[in-house]
Design goal:
Blueprint (H helix, E strand, L loop, with lengths): L1 E4 L1 H5 L1 H8 L3 E3 L4 H8 L8 E5 L2 E4 L18 H5 L16 E4 L2 E2 L18 E2 L2 H13 L4 E4 L8 H8 L4 E6 L6 H9 L2 E9 L3 H6 L8 H14 L2 E6 L7 H13 L3 E2 L10 H8 L23 E3 L11 E2 L2 E2 L6 E7 L4 E7 L15
Parallel strand pairs: 1-2, 1-16, 5-8, 8-9, 9-10, 10-11, 11-12
Antiparallel strand pairs: 2-3, 3-4, 6-7, 13-17, 14-15, 16-17
Helix pairs in contact: 5-6, 6-7, 7-9
Length: 363
């Protein structure tokens, strides 16, 4: 069984089902839905699948607690071949890299972001759990971590823990949320790459994008320069908006680049501005419901990673708590993501369990 997960299927499930040629599209956060699929369930909220000649969309995107996610454990073989250091520019990799999720979602609601129906409400894992996961990765030989958080917020306890470990890492964040002392700690903790969302150089432009930014453009520039004092690569992301005058933007970009900060040429928004417009254009209404609470996925994840265009080898049987899955079809997961910019397939063995669902309140 081939299952698709990710923001594309969560936003336009019918289109993703057709274009990817999968049997099921999981809408929203996938951990609990994959567990239920592995246990043999096939008809519950958060799924899109073919039903005869028609396509059924059950409910809408689902969410999980996430704060209770235990430290993930990855196979040595997978870590060894993970040479990619996402968004790292200050040095060439000499050892494997990894991705870690310290938090999920974002407390802001910028109009251009597609997080509404995929990773919406902000939740963070305890620093001790994150550091435990990173310690295991360090023992496996990694030298760099990219935090895939939608927004990496200042967290003194986590940064002090990272500083003690001598690891290099990258983040994406909002520069207006970082005070000078925390930027200094960020650099001391090992951060070598910052992607900072500036978006627009005018108050009107940032307001149109619902950035809810309290700083002026000059103050944002000063904070970027302060960040560059401590972090070797700082990027200011810009979006093309009608409120910004292009000559002013290009002059600001040159000023930032003279200060050692990379500022991109503003990127245009999609024609259907905002997630609601995109969903309307694709024929899907916004319906958001949460899934049911169940036990977390196994601490042991055993994927076989292949690019979509390459054939996958047969996966080995995965064992969790000394038990092997039996009597259930293999689940192959097709994940579409914008973070790394590609489509990847994973063959996963998930332990069969008997979760006891409990109702949860909407986010």
């Amino acid at each position: 069984m081939l299952v698709a997960i990710g923001p594309h299927g969560s936003t336009t499930p019918r289109a993703a089902l057709k274009k990817l040629g999968v049997e099921i599209v999981v809408m929203g956060e996938c951990e609990i839905s994959l567990l239920r699929l592995a246990n043999g369930e096939r008809d519950f909220a958060g799924l899109c699948f073919a039903d005869g000649a028609s396509v059924r969309v059950n409910g809408g995107p689902q969410a999980v607690d996430f704060k209770d996610q235990p430290p993930l454990r990855w196979p040595d073989e997978m870590v060894r071949r993970h040479h990619h250091h996402h968004h790292r520019f200050e040095a060439e990799p000499v050892a494997p890299g990894a991705e870690v999720e310290a938090s999920r979602g974002c407390p802001y609601s910028c109009t251009f972001c597609a997080k509404d129906n995929f990773r919406n409400a902000y939740r963070k894992r305890p620093p001790a759990i994150i550091l435990d996961e990173i310690d295991c990765l360090r023992q496996q030989g990694i030298e760099y971590v990219y935090f895939i958080d939608e927004i990496f917020l200042p967290n003194r306890e986590l940064l002090e823990g990272l500083r003690a470990r001598g690891l290099k890492f990258g983040v994406q964040t909002r520069i207006d949320l970082w005070k000078p002392d925390m930027l200094a700690l960020l650099g001391q903790a090992g951060c070598v790459s910052i992607e900072a969302g500036i978006e627009s150089l005018t108050v009107e432009g940032r307001a149109a994008l619902a950035k809810n930014c309290k700083m002026t453009t000059d103050q944002l520039a000063e904070r970027l320069v302060e960040a560059r004092r401590h972090v070797p690569f700082v990027q200011a992301n810009l979006i093309e908006v009608p409120e910004d005058d292009d000559p002013v933007v290009q002059r600001w970009r040159r000023q930032m680049q003279d200060a050692g900060i990379w500022a991109n040429d503003p990127v245009p928004l999609y024609p259907s501005s905002g997630l609601a417009g995109l969903q309307k254009a694709m024929g899907r209404t916004r319906r958001f419901r949460l899934g049911t609470r169940a036990s977390a996925l196994s601490r042991v994840v055993r994927p076989v990673q292949r690019r979509a265009e390459r054939p996958s080898r047969s996966p080995r049987c995965s064992r969790t708590s000394g038990r092997a899955m039996s009597g259930l079809p293999e689940l192959r997961i097709l994940m579409t993501t914008d973070t790394v910019g590609g489509v990847w397939t994973y063959s996963c063995g998930l332990a069969k369990t008997s979760p006891k669902p409990a109702p949860r309140s909407p986010l």
